[in-house]
Structure formats: structure tokens, C-alpha cells
Amino acid sequence: MTADALVIDNIGSLITNDPALGRGSLGIVENACVVIADDVVVAVGPAGAVADRRIDAGGACVLPGFVDSHTHLVFAGDRSEEFTARMDGRPYDGGGIQVTTDATRATSTARLDALVRERLAEAHRAGTTTIEIKSGYGLTVDDEVRSVDIARAHTSEATFLGAHLLPREYAGRADDYIALVCNDMLCRVAGTAKWVDAFCETGAFDADQCRAVLDAGRAAGLGLRLHGNQLGHGPGVQLAVECGCASVDHCTYLTDADIDALAGGETVATFLPATDFSTRQPYPDARRVLDAGATVALASNCNPGSSYTTSISFCIALAVREMHMTIDEAIAAVTTGGAAALRREDVGRLSPGSAGHAVILDAPSHHHLAYRPGVPLIRQTIGPLSSRALPLCGHGMGDDGVGRQRVDGHDRPAEGPQ
């Protein structure tokens, strides 16, 4: 057996997401083990393999670590009063983003980084091993740069979302702000961010403005993402497909033409059901999208205003109960679906050659994630996100307390493990 290998043994039900290895679309193997070395799966087989280290699953279910492809973890402040007011009947309109922007701008870089680490640790305990993190609560050049820097220090999936909302200092000058996003902001983050995103919605930015951001991001070498169709029908979904976005996120309001576009393209429809729960919006009908043949993902959208949760298990339960997804479809959506939304093939599965990121449940079957909503069923998470949730290295600390290194002639926060 490979030196320094870890075997997760005595697995009652192993979800591999590789139909060649096991039963059904999830590739379920019973009475199994999985062997991991150097963070890579090297073998899947019957229980009883020997390795340097052993975890006894005790007959429990093991599945790939969750892939959360949409989060907004770089923020400060609290909006619980807004949530409470909304539960009392006030509708959600997205305007509270400015409240978080004010708090984030006023918070030190060291404190923002500490808050992100706390949220990452919480997500890891809840089974997430791969995560995307957006900027979008700075909305000035310097604040967006430091938000992207903090995100990139903890994940390779860092997204620049300067076009999140029009800041109050640009009221009535949306085109001027989009010009800032496409030029000064983008130039400063292009060497750090992997993705560019925009909020295509009434009250945020229109299709032409979002297209300008996506085109500029593509020209700068970034991958494309888009928020679309959250608050009502609009051009977001079809714009995302037309532009070749990896993912279009929310997709709460979909026409037949939107669904046809998704089914005919390569853009993943990423649903964010915890947002619909927290805002009392209608839930999207994922069944229509799945039956049309489109690829679907589920993500947490962790943010302080409309979805303050890191629990992918909660999203699974909502998707099954409220969005007409089967349990198997929901599991696929938070693993291989999330990976597809990030254009990744190495995560979201447990087969030889894939990343060795796994979740051990306190349950005999993955069905319990929907069957027992609200119960903490994640016994153990095996994957790299825990190391990203540790304090940054103290070498080369700047005055703000964040480790820094030179990248392309600029000071950048030191990168965490990838």
C-alpha cells in the first residue's frame, strides 16, 4: 500500500459519483473502503485495506466533500434586524448590501481575514471541502482589491464581484461605476481573482452593464459567472449562456426560453435555496431544469443579508422538499454539480485520481441528509479546507496583520494551500 496513505475503512455506503465503480448515477459501493495518499484517491475497493493510517467509518455513509460554488464570506457587520423585519413582512429588495458595504469598509484587513477563517472553519465542520469566495462588499478600488486578496488567501476559487450593487457615492452614475469596475478595479485584481461576476437584476445592473463587465473580465483572462433572475424574470440567464459563463446563480424565475438556453449551453444553473428560504421568495422549480437536461448545482450563498448559512446539508433538505429534486439529484448537485460550476473535474467525486476530500456521516445512508433535516449528521470532514481556516503565516506580516508576498511587483496576501 502507498506510503503515508490513509484508508477510510468499514464504509457501509460509499458515494463515489462514478457509475463505473458502483450502483446507479452516484456510483454507490457497499461495504467499501477508500484509500487516500497525498490528498488524492488512489484506490476504492472492498473493506479491509491496510494503510499507514486508518479511520473506521463504522458502517456509516461516506460521500465526496461538498463543493460550495457560491459564497460571499468577506464581510463584516450584522443584519439580523433586517432578517427579523423581513420575517415580519417586509420584502427583500437587495438594498441592505450597502449596510454591509459600510461595515466592511470600516473593518481592518486583519479582522476581515479572521472573520473569513471563522466562516471557513464552520463550513468545513458542515462538510464543505471546496469553496468559492466572492468580493463585492467593498465597492471601491482598494476595498475590492483587499477583499479579493483575502478570498485568494483561502481558496483558488476567488471571484471579483465589483458589480454587486451601485454604491451610494455613484448614485445616478451607474455607467461611470461600471467603467471603474471594468478598468481600475479589474486591472488591480486580474492577477489574483480567478473569476469575474456581476449582479444582473432590477435595482443592480442591467444586461448591457453586466455584459461590459463580463467582456472586460474575459479580456483580462478571468472566468465568467453571473447572478441572474433572482428577484424576477430578466435577461440574466440567457446573457450568461450567451457569454459562456461557467454558472448563472439564483435562477429563481425561469421562462421556457431560459430553460431551453440552459439545456442547450454549458452554463450550470446554480440554485441557492437557503436564499429563497431567508427572503421568502418562491423556490425555483429545479425539476423543469433537470428534465430539460441542464446541469444543476446547489450552493449556500453564505452572506449576511439573504442567506447567512454555511450548511450545505440544509440546502439539500430544502432542494428535496421545496424544489422537486430527488435526494440523489441533490447530492449530485452539491458535489459534481458544484464542481461543474467551477469547471473542476478533480473534486466532487471519490474515484482514483480525484481529490481525497470526503465526508463521513453519522448515518447509514445519504438519504438521511434530507430525511433528518436540521440534525448535525457530519461526523468528520476530510479535506484541505480545514488548513485554509488556520491563521495565516506570520512571515512578512504587514501593518494590517496579514501575511504578504510579492506577486507581479505588488504586495499580495500570502496564498494558502490549494
What does this structure look like?
The structure is a single chain. With 418 residues, the protein is of the alpha/beta class. 33% of the residues lie in helices and 22% in strands. The protein is built from 15 helices and 17 strands. The chain has helices at residues 80-87, 97-105, 109-125, 141-154, 174-189, 207-219, 236-243, 256-264, 273-279, 286-292, 312-322, 327-333, 336-341, 368-371, 385-388; strands at residues 6-15, 28-37, 40-46, 53-56, 61-64, 66-68, 128-134, 157-163, 195-200, 223-228, 247-250, 268-271, 296-298, 358-361, 378-382, 404-407, 410-413. It has an 8-stranded parallel beta sheet. A hairpin with a 2-residue loop joins strand 16 and strand 17. Helix 3 (109-125) packs parallel to helix 4 (141-154). The longest helix has 17 residues, at 109-125. It is globular and about 65 Å long. It starts with 5 loop residues before the first strand and ends in a 5-residue tail after the last strand. Mean pLDDT is 91; it is low at 386-418.
Reconstruct the topology from this structure:
Layout (H helix, E strand, L loop, with lengths): L5 E10 L12 E10 L2 E7 L6 E4 L4 E4 L1 E3 L11 H8 L9 H9 L3 H17 L2 E7 L6 H14 L2 E7 L10 H16 L5 E6 L6 H13 L3 E6 L7 H8 L3 E4 L5 H9 L3 E4 L1 H7 L6 H7 L3 E3 L13 H11 L4 H7 L2 H6 L16 E4 L6 H4 L6 E5 L2 H4 L15 E4 L2 E4 L5
Parallel strand pairs: 1-4, 1-5, 6-7, 7-8, 8-9, 9-10, 10-11, 11-12, 12-13
Antiparallel strand pairs: 1-2, 2-3, 5-14, 14-15, 16-17
Helix pairs in contact: 3-4, 4-5, 5-6, 7-8
